[in-house]
Amino acid sequence: MEATLGELCESLAKYGMKPVLKGDAGQRIGRVNTLEDAGEGDISFLSNPKYEKMLGTTEASAVVLRPDISAPDRLNLIQIDDPYAAISALIVQIHGYRRHRRVPPDMSGTHKHETARIGQNATIHPGATIDEEVMIGDNAIIYPGCYIGPRCRIGNNVLLYPNVVVYDDTIIGDRVTIHSNTVIGEDGLGYAPVEGKWFKIPQIGHVEIEDDVEIGANCSIDRATLGRTRIGRGTKFSNLIAVGHGTQIGEDCLLVAQVGLAGSVTVGRHVTMAGQVGVAGHLRIGDDVTLGAKAGVVNSVPDGQTYLGQPAIPIRDMRRQVVHQQHLPELSQTVKRLEKEVAELRRRLAERNEDAPPARG
Amino acid sequence: MEATLGELCESLAKYGMKPVLKGDAGQRIGRVNTLEDAGEGDISFLSNPKYEKMLGTTEASAVVLRPDISAPDRLNLIQIDDPYAAISALIVQIHGYRRHRRVPPDMSGTHKHETARIGQNATIHPGATIDEEVMIGDNAIIYPGCYIGPRCRIGNNVLLYPNVVVYDDTIIGDRVTIHSNTVIGEDGLGYAPVEGKWFKIPQIGHVEIEDDVEIGANCSIDRATLGRTRIGRGTKFSNLIAVGHGTQIGEDCLLVAQVGLAGSVTVGRHVTMAGQVGVAGHLRIGDDVTLGAKAGVVNSVPDGQTYLGQPAIPIRDMRRQVVHQQHLPELSQTVKRLEKEVAELRRRLAERNEDAPPARG
Amino acid sequence: MEATLGELCESLAKYGMKPVLKGDAGQRIGRVNTLEDAGEGDISFLSNPKYEKMLGTTEASAVVLRPDISAPDRLNLIQIDDPYAAISALIVQIHGYRRHRRVPPDMSGTHKHETARIGQNATIHPGATIDEEVMIGDNAIIYPGCYIGPRCRIGNNVLLYPNVVVYDDTIIGDRVTIHSNTVIGEDGLGYAPVEGKWFKIPQIGHVEIEDDVEIGANCSIDRATLGRTRIGRGTKFSNLIAVGHGTQIGEDCLLVAQVGLAGSVTVGRHVTMAGQVGVAGHLRIGDDVTLGAKAGVVNSVPDGQTYLGQPAIPIRDMRRQVVHQQHLPELSQTVKRLEKEVAELRRRLAERNEDAPPARG
Which of A27, C130, C295, C320 is the most buried (most CB within 10 A)? Predict the structure, then answer.
């Protein structure tokens, strides 16, 4: 929705932010854009100092940045302490969230079992399947190709993008979003070895996804063998993430793409895992932990720690270790040189000993 | 199905197990549950000693555990050598496997080509597509959103969960289960470089999946360029696994989530690969090999070996290497100290040599 | 299409290749096959010297190989400098590419919005969904279970295999192929931290896929937060690849399975990334770069370099480092021995010093 720079500053102030406008308060803004691509009527922002030089060339009609950054006089500026938070608010203000097409509530084209119950104002798109005894909350949107298995309970304002599959008995809270082709509640790798073969153990547990979770595309979250696999309130997943059976993830975590958690892992609150991290089974990852990209975690991690490497260790130790690894060839040379020098010293000392009688004896 | 503890012990004995019941044989059991969540009427188990302390607090009506573990008197116990195998059998006994809804055989709502043939008592759910000349065996269950490409042959008692895609000419044996959103038989990365561009090579091979295989969710198994990609009898996959074109996997293997095998790899029987393992192209992985989590395999692995690390080496060597890596900073300090000491020794020896005439000469 | 060996050589010559035929020009060939599986009427090839011994046992009616390789007299041979390119051309000649079933243009069984426009001779299979204001080019093929979101523009001769999901506003060029269950344009991990919670930033950018790109199965390509995520002309992806928001990939790149690129990465032209590579955010990967399997890239990589390892460094350095790592236990032993020897030397020198008066003083 178009607004003037002055109006945008007022809306930021309502969030408790303290914007300072330098320039034309009447400039009309219709779009948020990158410094590189912005043109007339666009507002942009500078958050990562890496891109500071683009201030010289941008054609944006206004830029949001920190007060200590200098910019050409020609630019309209909104100076603010946290430009990233401010531009996020402006994107919501100007563009809003994706608008979803609603379809008539007659369920035509869907495969809905007669025992399923659909909440008020929910949209089930043609091509979706809602199986026996499913309950779907109010205002939910289920896109084509989704399959909701028997006895699932789906909360209010849930959004399932096309081709999401939810196995039987899954519980999903309110305001949960799941992106396309993600699978929730498939059987985990539960087999008992019997005479060299794998005997399948029925996976009778389920998955619970709490309120305000968002899950990316192509993720797989195993149901528990017994009990439940749990994704805590407010946690956000990127894409291609695997969660093993019985694993418990706390509130407000952030998991980047291709993370894999084995079974029966317990993850605390507000944990960040960077891309391609792996965590072995039955470990505990404490609250406020950060795991660096590609970390291979084989021991439990205490609260508040940052771990890195494979096997993962505290980041400071890993960084020192990496520096030393990269200097290993030199270290090895040094040791070789020392060996020669010590041999030479030994030889010279022996020579002197031959000349002189031994000290004692 | 509810049963008494006495009846459950009898059923374990039929499997050749030797349960010893301590407590009330008449206690009724209706559910298997975790030590933590169990209540009245639930049976639980202790397999991983990590959870032993929960015996003190569990409210389970009975617990399966090894004879050498002591437990509070109030608990009914089934003592047995392998509690994990026993509880697996009890889950089957009490809960059984997932029950699948059958639909009428009129194929309404499906997209079945007229030339496809469907076996007796098979269920093709509305929203599935069965393409030209496909043959599907007896009792198969094909869920909504599945696509079975031209000329595929699908065995008896096969179970395809929603949105599985099977490309043309794939052969799937009996009792195979494939979880949602897995793709079988897509083209591999087959291109010839021609003047700096990639010229696509038609991938005219196919995929064969033998009897009793189970494949997790969101996996991708490339068809062969020529010949076949093969998954051997009884092998089990977790989720998000990638198998390259022409790779051959033997019988009774277990692959954990996010494993990636390049093309033309040959894997023996009864191989275990932990999470996020990668194997380079054209290698041979022997029988009974174990690859540790995140192993990066760049050389063939002989039968019976356990490899770990990146590049992967025998586990004993890798464990020693890791310990030494973690002590690298100290080692480096020691070498620095030695350098100083050797320099000092050299200086002192030189001083003495200046005082005294050289030994010889 | 069946042909004689003589005719096949003529067709290779038309590509500018210089085949030399040794044997029966009239031999009829109907199939390309592996050395191992080939039989009467099949032509095979030898490209990887690893398989040379199979020349002794193959039952192929002809083999394509380099002129310097010797083979049994009984075999018909096509000698040529690049057997891999030649066999690629022969696969096209004899087998051609996959033939796709066309359906009537009446759109029956599809969910097409009234505002969508479909090009001439395009096939939209039943079970596909084409949403509002979508434009699909001529000759495109959209398989069942695909979902094309609002306002997408899809080029001519595009091929989307079953269950591909394309989010709103995606732009796809001509002759693009996308394999099953891949998702294009889902929201990336865009959240601003607000009081310990994650505030979702609307992802108002989009994805652009240029001409002649092929994307494997189960990949996820995030839309940009602002602006676009771009996959350059002629680039090819294998399976299970994750691309973060705003990342730009150049022309003619090759990405192997399970590669993960974070957001705002810039990748040049003709870059090769082997399996399970990870690249951190905001980096620049130059033209003609090669990243070895499992590389963890945390710094930008200049043009033409080959990087390996975690953290990734130039391949020569990494190989040296790995050799030294594997010899760390010995190095550590050597240092321990040196410590003892230096201590011994110091002791002996001290003894002599006790005997004799100090050199000076």
Answer: C295
